[in-house]
Design brief:
Blueprint lengths: L16 H7 L5 H14 L4 E8 L7 E7 L6 H5 L23 H9 E10 L2 E8 H7 L10 E3 L10 H14 L5 H9 L6 E9 L9 E2 L8 E2 L9 H4 L1 H6 L8 E4 L2 E2 L10 E10 L4 H35 L5 H36 L2 E9 L8 E6 L2 E7 L14 E7 L16 H22 L1 H4 L1 H6 L16 H10 L3 E3 L6 E3 L39 E2 L8 H23 L7 H5 L19 H6 L84 H4 L11 H20 L10 H5 L49 H14 L10 H5 L5 E6 L2 E12 L4 E7 L9 E5 L5 E3 L13 H4 L15 H19 L17 H5 L3 H63 L7 H16 L1
Length: about 1050
């Protein structure tokens, strides 16, 4: 369709406010400056000078200038600058940084309000002026950009319209720092090379204190971020010189700031023990898919044009027929050439589309380089480049996220091409956050592998850093400035410097006297002491980095099969739970459900627990069972208490306070529906006679409503929950005409709030009659009490409150949808727990450092205290799996009559809430068996109960077992045994002392005899041989030996 048909349509316009809006993408100010440096690099510049010129009359007090020796721009290319979003650099295979046609406008407008550009190329001089001040002063809404041009040799204007030239220059003279044409030519003269560009930004943006954002006064060789503290900030965030030094992964352009050269770095050559890891992945598809779609669209358009041209050619050939006139042949030949050219173009674009489609399935390959920064160890993390341009720096990943010394000081470097990841417009992040996170995760895995390959941890991390002068305990403290440490660093990392002439990088050999030498900015290859690379025509030295390989732990077939079985089992359990779940939308739906409560007896929990104990009562999920507990050997009706969690306890029902005074206090042997004592009740209740029976007499409904709760303004939240519980109980009571046995332990808990309630006397020791009840089918979901015939008060079992507690616990077991552990708030409270995790059939201790929850499960991330080198330091585990268990489970609460008074002060025992049905009974059966074994093994000889009776004791009898007397007898037996051992030891010690005394006496007698013998020998020798002077025993021995030797000779 012809363009003229669109003249009547509306067109989008670019307003002057967009200049400011577009600049706000640069949150990092140095990133805006880097946009102008990128343009110089893309223009093949070998040098860029960044400097300031003082201009007190301008806002900010100075102009910021960027001068390069690149290829420059002619007038036609300069017009692309004022076209937002248009770039001649954009192509999939391009290695240039600029792709969006937006960097110069957004970067310069972020630094200041106005900029003027001078460029030289060929025989033309071009000036481009973009000023927000001009638009604001003139009240303009459209963006107007003056663009005058001059001839390089004559300095005459090249505009064919003198009036246009006059308007453009007048605006520049009025709103720019240059007031005449001579001053403009002076700026062109600063471009000394045959081509180049000069960008001047002025009227700089100011901070709230009316000072410019860039500080050029503190350091005359640098451009600093104003107001940025020195401590705790990375140097690249504070100093533009430091940022420019690492801006490119392979610097080929000299950068001068305020006239002083920036010592650019090749990070891979500045690290200790660098190692490269090759990585390939098919996950990076977003950018490639966009290119495939674009190529497919272009191929379709080219195919349509080729078909249309071929159709015209065929029609023209049929029309011309046998006409051989020159005009007809020219028209026909032109149509044929056009059709041929368009067909060739369509075929080429089709091949490009097929090539890109094929490349989409191929893995993308990257090179990860890791090394240790021994010069400043706190500057560690990942440096991610895109087409050699720095995008992200100091990104922590893998073990570095844990904050320990593992992988501390390690720097990672990777250069990502456009086809793998596309950067954002401000070049400070990546457009696809998901793929970028995958990249960091992969780098983290390779970082952990590098840490293993470097053997730093095996040799000792502290010892390693001590070798390079890091003697302080503070991680951020600099290394020692002693010469031996500086020399050691210089020996490990050879100096790499760039020739100022050929721009090649040279590695200098180590010299002892060159450790602290300052090399000139104009260093050239001729100054290289290495004779093989002391000239510019010598090839550049390539870095021969050792290659590493990521070694993943291979799982055996048994482990894989086990994990698969566990996943299938978990999914089956989830499916069963979903199938048995009934949606309840109102109270009427609750009444329609078939409900029942277990009546199995268990010991009574204390009705006098305090408020703090009451709030700690929870329904936790039990930890995984050890293998020897999964196969029970004997039945038992009572479950052991499990480790409490942070889930809030179910509140007791709220009852009118006016009815509180009539409620009697329950005893340890009270009827099933005896209400708990009120807060105002001070009269102790009399204990009822104990008679075992098979049924209980339920109390009337009116009596149940007499349960009281004193209003407490300090616990309003708890009272609201109690009101909700009371309403639900009243609905259940209205459904049943006959009184029922209450299924909840709330009645017993309500009595715990009395201010002056006396404790009931403990029951006498004795065997309890075990109540046998025929099994009834159980159903998942909400349960209601089962009706039972009334009985006389004499047929009340001993432990009715415990029955109520057990019934409530069983009802809670049948409601998996109410599991509080899947609540994210409650699940997060698991952080910090000390657990044990099974890895490769071994248990290792650790700490929960993270919690992940979803609708179906809870996962813990456990950081191990110690594991073998080949095992990861942390691991994700499912909380309910058999691979994890809590480290310190509390011991079961003793429920014997002798310790009942202590038990009453603590929380009531709870049944485990395992994922598999019947596990709670299996656990208790196994624990009963273990209890019998323990009692028999440590059975004291003085106990009145026969030892053989323990084998036949039921669960309730074991609960009532006189443990206090048992341990008293056991202690007496131990004391007697210890006394016998002590007596035996004392007797032996006494005998040894006597032997020692006798030995000392005999030794003394022998010494006396020996001394007497020596005296006699001296007297004898003196009598026989005459005067002999012998005064010591040694002299006597020596004299006798001489005599004997003479006699032998």
């Amino acid at each position: 369709m012809a363009f003229s048909n669109y003249k009547s349509l509306n067109r989008a316009q670019l307003t002057v406010e967009y200049l400011h809006t577009n600049s706000t993408t640069h949150e990092f100010l140095f990133g805006a400056l880097a946009e102008l440096v990128d343009n110089s690099r893309d223009a093949s510049a070998t040098r860029i000078d960044i400097y300031t010129e003082k201009r007190p009359e301008l806002r900010g007090g100075y102009m910021l200038c960027f001068l390069d020796d690149g290829i420059g721009m002619d007038p036609n290319e300069a017009t692309h600058v004022i076209q937002f979003g248009k770039s001649s650099k954009r192509s999939p295979e391009s290695t240039q940084i600029g792709q969006y046609g937006n960097g110069l406008k957004s970067g310069s407008m972020r630094i200041g309000k106005d900029f003027i550009l001078f460029t030289k190329k060929g025989s033309t001089l071009t000036c481009l002026f973009l000023s927000r001040t001009f638009h604001e002063e003139e009240g303009l809404d459209e963006v107007i950009v003056p663009l005058p041009t001059w001839d390089l040799s004559t300095k005459k204007p090249m505009n064919s319209d003198p009036e246009k030239y006059a308007i453009e220059t007048e605006l520049i003279f009025k709103y720019s720092p240059f007031k005449n044409e001579q001053q403009l030519m002076e700026q062109f003269n600063k471009i000394e090379s045959s081509s180049g560009t000069l960008v001047i930004i002025y009227n700089l943006k100011l901070m709230d204190n009316r000072e410019p954002e860039l500080d050029v006064e503190t350091d005359n060789q640098d451009i600093l971020m104003a107001g940025m503290p020195f401590e705790g900030v990375k140097p690249e965030r504070r100093s533009f010189r430091a940022y420019a030094a690492v801006l490119y992964i392979d610097p080929r352009m000299r950068i001068f700031i305020q006239g002083h050269k920036v010592r650019t770095k090749r990070l891979s050559r500045c690290l200790y023990k660098p190692r490269v890891y090759q990585y390939s992945s098919t996950r990076f598809k977003t950018r490639a898919e966009q290119e495939v779609k674009k190529a497919d669209h272009m191929a379709k358009i080219a195919e349509e044009k080729a078909r249309e041209a071929e159709s015209k050619r065929l029609a023209l050939e049929a029309k011309v027929g046998d006409d051989i006139s020159k005009k007809s042949r020219v028209i026909l030949r032109k149509a044929q050439d056009t059709a041929m050219m368009l067909r060739r173009d369509a075929d080429m674009k089709k091949k490009i589309q097929e090539t890109k489609q094929k490349a989409l399935k191929e893995p993308k390959e990257l090179a990860f380089i890791f090394g240790v920064n021994i010069e400043q160890r706190d500057l560690d993390g990942m440096f991610v480049y895109n087409c050699s341009r720095l995008i992200k720096m100091y990104e922590k990943t893998g073990p570095q996220l844990e904050g320990g010394m593992a992988c501390g000081g390690v720097v990672g470097v990777v250069d990502v091409p456009y086809l793998v990841l596309e950067p954002t417009h401000n070049k400070q992040d990546f457009a696809d956050a998901k793929e970028y996170r995958h990249l960091l995760k992969s780098m983290g895995e390779h970082l952990a592998q590098y840490w293993k390959d470097s053997n730093i941890a095996q040799k000792g991390i502290v010892k390693f850093w001590d070798e390079f002068g890091y003697l302080s305990a503070s991680w951020s403290a600099p290394p020692s400035s002693e010469q031996r440490y500086r020399r050691r660093c210089a020996m490990e990392i050879p100096l790499t410097i760039q020739c100022d002439k050929c721009l090649k990088w040279r590695t200098l050999p180590f010299q002892m006297d060159a450790v602290d030498r300052r090399y000139p900015d104009s260093w050239v290859c001729l100054m290289n002491p290495d004779s093989n690379h002391d000239r510019c025509d010598a090839s550049e030295q390539k870095a021969n980095l050792p290659c590493g390989v990521l070694k993943k732990d291979k799982q055996t077939a048994e482990v894989k099969q086990k994990e698969l079985s566990e996943k299938i089992k978990q999914q089956q359990e989830k499916l069963e739970a979903l199938q048995k779940t009934t949606t309840i939308k109102s109270a009427a739906d609750i009444k329609k459900l078939p409900l029942e409560v277990s009546m199995r007896p268990t010991t009574a929990s204390s009705p006098q627990a305090t408020r703090s104990s009451e709030r700690s009562i929870t329904r936790p999920r039990s930890p995984p069972l050890p293998p020897h507990l999964k196969n029970p050997t004997a039945p038992l009706t009572r479950a052991t208490p499990q480790r409490p969690t942070q889930t809030p306890a179910p509140p007791p029902p709220k009852v009118e306070p006016a009815r509180a005074r009539a409620a009697p206090k329950p005893t340890a042997k009270a009827p099933a529906k005896t209400p708990p004592p009120s807060r105002s009740s001070r009269t102790p209740a009399k204990p009822l006679p104990t008679k075992p029976a098979l049924a209980t007499k339920p109390a009337p409904a009116s009596q149940r409503k007499r349960i009281i709760k004193q209003e407490d303004s300090e616990e309003e939240d708890e009272e609201e929950e109690e009101e909700e519980e009371e309403e639900s109980e009243e609905e259940e009571e209205s459904e049943d005409e006959k009184p029922q046995i209450k299924k909840s332990k709330i009645v017993a808990a309500a009595g715990n709030r009395g201010k002056a309630v006396e404790k009931a006397p403990p029951p006498k020791r004795g065997k309890l009659a075990e109540v046998v009840k025929p099994p009834q089918p159980e159903k998942k979901g909400v349960t209601t009490p089962t009706r039972h015939p009334s009985t006389t008060p004499s047929s009340v079992p001993k432990d009715i409150p415990a029955q109520q507690h057990e019934a409530k616990a069983k009802a809670s077991e049948k409601a998996p949808e109410q599991d509080p552990e899947k609540d994210p708030k409650n699940a997060q409270k698991g952080k910090g727990l000390l657990v044990e995790v099974r890895v490769n059939k071994e248990w290792y201790t650790g700490k929960v450092i993270a919690v992940e929850t979803n609708k179906e499960s809870v996962r813990w991330k456990v950081k191990f205290d110690y594991v073998p080198i080949s095992t990861p330091k942390d691991r994700w585990v499912f909380k309910s799996s058999d691979e994890v268990r809590l480290m310190r489970p509390p011991s079961p609460i003793s429920q014997t009559p002798d310790t009942q008074q202590e038990t009453e002060k603590g929380p009531a025992p709870m049944e485990p809430d395992t994922a598999q049905p019947g596990t709670s009974r299996e656990v208790t059966d196994s624990l009963v068996t273990m209890m019998r074994t323990m009692l028999r093994y440590f059975f004291p000889p003085g106990l009145q109960i026969p030892k053989d009776d323990v084998n036949s004791m039921t669960a309730l009898e074991l609960v009532a077992f006189p443990l206090k007397e048992y341990f008293q007898q056991y202690e007496l037996g131990l004391q007697s045994l210890c006394n016998s051992y002590q007596s035996r030891a004392d007797a032996r010690a006494k005998a040894v002392e006597e032997k020692s005394s006798n030995a000392e006496i005999k030794l003394k007698e022998a010494d006396e005899k020996l001394q007497k013998l020596r005296t006699n020998m001296v007297a004898l020798l003196q009598h026989v041989l005459g005067d002999i002077d012998i005064n010591a025993d040694d002299e006597l021995d020596a004299y006798i030996e001489d005599l004997l030797s003479q006699r032998n000779e």
